[in-house]
Amino acid sequence: MLDVRKLRLLRELAHRGTIVAVAEALSYTPSAVSQQLTALERETGVPLLERTGRRVQLTPAALGLVEHTESILAILQKAAAELASTALTGTLRIGVFPTAVQTILTPAIVALSTEHPGLDLMVAELDPASVPDALREESLDVALVQEYDYVPVVSEPGLQTEPLLEETLHLAALTAGPLTAWRDSPWIAGTPGTLCHAMTVRACEATGFVPRIRHHADDFGAVLALMAAGQGVAFVPDLGAVAAPATVVLTPLPIRRRTHLAYRRGTGDHPAISAARLALQRAADQMPNGLA
């Protein structure tokens, strides 16, 4: 009988790429991870890892085993959800991106706290690009993820998503003008590696130029403050433009940002996660016209 804990380590190695990264994510030592994977190889009777110096690669047999592992973990999550008490208690960990904290998260957790006082709510603010790993390592239970027209969502094995909100993207500048008018201007974008940064680069490239990014900021309040001070232009979604300075001109673009709810496969019907999904969806549905 294969050990689910060892299978999970193999799954994490497939996603994270190195034994060190797996160890850091799951609070193991690298040697402990290596030992467990070696033991899994003995249990299966087939090579799972190809070692080249300090690096390892998964064999075709290992990749097939990872696919089965995703299904096994989803079944176990579903079984746990079915066994969970209908009285909502315990910890519920929710991950959100910054612009959703005030507009979507706050009314949702107020409703959850009122309707289910036995829930211990914990909120983590993080970039949507970090959400899949956080859900897989179970440091989050439900979270918000995003995609832009130019940065589509990547299907993540072991995770399930559902639509929550769609927004218009705006060009934020001190004067109105088409996107091409800002090809030689300085730009303000998110930190490299974030979806916002990738969207800025790809949207400009699709228009025929590479943006000259002068400043990096992940909070749209900071982006708008820099922009209002004449430090560049930027793309800002509806949620980020709620408190735009009066001097900022927002030009709607035919580009959309879509937000989805994400959770581990098999957990959607867990009473606590089901309640969170409902509260977050209600909060999104109550957004002003033009935001939902």
UniProtKB/TrEMBL annotation:
One GO MF term, please? DNA binding
Keywords from the UniProt entry: DNA-binding, Transcription, Transcription regulation
Q: What species is given as this protein's source?
A: Kibdelosporangium banguiense
Q: Which InterPro entries match?
A: LysR_HTH_N, LysR_subst-bd, WH-like_DNA-bd_sf, WH_DNA-bd_sf
What is the name attached to this protein's record? DNA-binding transcriptional LysR family regulator
| Keyword Transcription listed | yes
Q: Which family does it belong to?
A: Belongs to the LysR transcriptional regulatory family.
Q: Which residues form the HTH lysR-type domain?
A: 2-59
Q: Which domain of life is it from?
A: Bacteria
